[in-house]
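Entry:
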Amino acid sequence: MSSRLENPTLSPVAVDGDPWLRRPLEAPALLAWRCAAVGFALLELFVYFRWVPRWMDSLLSQALTAQMEAGSSLPYVGPVWAAGVIAMVCVSSWCAMALIILWKRSRDRFGILLFLGFVSVGVVNSTDFTSLVRHHSADSAAPVAFMAMLSASALSIMWFFVFPDGRFVPRWAAWVAGAWIGWNVLRFSLYLAGALPHWLLTQIIVIAFVVTSMCTLVARYLTGSSEVQRNQLKWLLLCGLVALMTYLAFYLVKIANLDSEAPGFLFGVASQAMHATVTAAGAVAMFIAIFRQGLLDVDRWISRTLFYSALTAVVLTAFFIVSAVASRLLKDVAGQTSDLVLALLALPMAIAFLIVRSRLSRLLDTLLSERRILSVMFIDIVNSTVLAVEMGDEAWSDKLERFRTVVRRALDNFGGIEIDTAGDGFFATFAGPAGAIRCAESIIDEVQQLGIAVRAGVHTGEVTRRGDRAVGVAVHVGARIMALAAPSELLVSGVVRDLVAGSRIDLVERGEHPLKGLPGTFRLYGLAH
């Protein structure tokens, strides 16, 4: 069986019963949502970077004043510049994560929310957010700037309540999220009326919402998540708890007014820089979760781009060093260099480079292998050999190519990743069983117009990923289930049936069957028509 890996399109398709945030957007609506999201993110960043120079000027002035008042030889200006650099690293790291989400995971409202939330986390947490409003108060466009920053404040927490599957878990998180949005709307209304609440009251309420958002994550992790979701949440939860502690420390310094006096100025700058550092580490934690835990299904893209590119760079560097050493030895022995000799060395070195890279790539695939819960889908053409004989090579080749086009288009639409194809059959993986079922159903219906019938099987279980390959008992179970399906029929395992319970996917029992090479019997279900 030849192997072919498509670039994952990362467009998990929701079915009836999935949350509103996860329902896929059609092309016109998707374009409108993306344009609106990018436009608002650019507005946030415009306001932010318009304010940052003023913030730095204010801090530098305070640093010089504090140093003069303290009469100390301690550096006051240096820590301010360091805090500014850390702030830029923080906002850049979260914006980088946001761009990954926009590129690879923005085909529904959940992806759009994550994109805006990630940008907002960097904007709100990299600097002293409360000072931003004060510096913009004299601007002619102050209402727009204040609205943008309050929206960023709301979005920086909102995605916590629905992460990682677009649902509010526990259910009371929806009420907290609604209250958080209402609070920011109230702040803006009071601002327009010229009656902003007291600064201390504002900070206490904001801190309460931040603590509550972390509580929802803890509650989701402990009681409302599957094993896969807990693996996705643990990196965010760990870094989020540390960020919460530094956030509280920073605002306790502000509330206690410890940074108003010269000795406390450095303490205030340090606490702010520490919070920005931990927030930037949060972006790194999200990156690790995406790569290692399969979060949002973009780990394969990151692993191949990052690690294989780095491997190529390392091996190329090694061969360039060998080339330089050979050139130096030639010069020492012959007293001069020869382009002809170096050209003759280039061919065996290029061959050796390809061999070494191939061996190291296979080693890397083994080291990066991981076990994940995935849904596997097998599908093939019924009586393909008979059809090939009846139609002849040329007609069959054309029919087969059209079949492949149908399958790959369906995989693209339903978020499937092609793993293997044997010409008349496909093996693909999905993040969840609903997408696999809908994909198989779409293929079965569409290929009937080509005058051919296919059979399909879907199973969900632990799969070990090794580079382009997927192995494990779950893979064998999926293949055996497909082999039992009748023409134009989809069979699924009992595990799949339990996972899609509550959705509008109607399944009917097909009895218990032994699967070749596997112990015991398996209760199978077919898709109702």
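The first strand starts at residue 2 and ends at 3.
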